[in-house]
Amino acid sequence: MQRRDVLRLSLALLGSAASFSLARALQADTVVNPGMVATVFDPPGQAAIELLSEMIIPETDTPGAIAAGVPDFIAVIVSSWYTPTERKVFFSGLQQLDAYCLQQENQPFHLASEASRVAALTEQERIASEYQPPMQGGSFYRQSSDEEAPFFKKIRELVVLGYYTSEVGCTEELAYRPAPGEYNGDYEFAKIGRQWSH
What we know:
2 strands; two-stranded parallel sheet; mainly alpha
């Protein structure tokens, strides 16, 4: 299965849950080249993106987000697909992480201790949990795609989608069988140990 096929499948599965810009990227044949992160972010920003990626999906018994090329995926989406508003929110979030760590221990996020980095990201998660998206067209329905969605929502969405649409995520973290066998509705999950990707 090619990455673009996985991206299109992801779009079908995510539907309106994906941000508008991410949905457009999924519909296109988005190409992610190694080293992209260095062309979009300055060195502290690049280090922050790598740290955030690995904080959200760390290396365990399977490769983590860095091994899956997630920082380069983030760079492509932020630079080529995000709207100016989304990009502003994203870069503001990186600045807020720095500000939090500078206040705690006088070091920017990428140089701060692990405890400060975790606390900074937890604070961003708290901010995101309190955020209410605007109503859509004055109706009672909240917008499913919101350009001003908080930084934490954006970084989490990018890391998870970038990871699980990578070859590493699809074949090493998820159990992948190119030609699945029979359906068994009562299969013991403990025998697999991981969820199946399709």
